Structure prediction request, 153 residues.
Amino acid sequence: MDYDLLLVGPPVPPASLAEALTGAVRTEGVDVDVADRDSDQSGRDWAAPVLCGYIMLRGDLSMSLEIHVEDALVDETPTEPELARRLAATLGVPVLYPAERDLPPSAYWLATSSGRSVRARLYSTDEEPPVHTIDAVGSAVALLPQVRVSDLP
Prediction:
């Protein structure tokens, strides 16, 4: 299964991210490979059941994660919302995941470290690299006091 997640707040060290992914997919004793997608890829463990490539972001977001979990080789393959909630709880930072396909590209869900999910609206600038801004959330999020609360579809 493939996941596309966005981390809010400070960047997470690769070792912490690997440990969080191990717990999130319940892969005791299974290899998890985490690497910067812009770095040399020759040292990666491409046979690992859990692969995570990340890039650093600017603005309200710190990291974009592309995660691949080989279903047959792990104990559990959570849904994208469940993986986002587990990572948010373990890492202590909000995690964004895409909303339903029929909503605008700015529509996301934001998983909080307390285990709940709220609607979020994310905008990105056209500059390269883009700056990402969480414009609004459906209900207050303690770690994002500066973000306005608004009714979001």
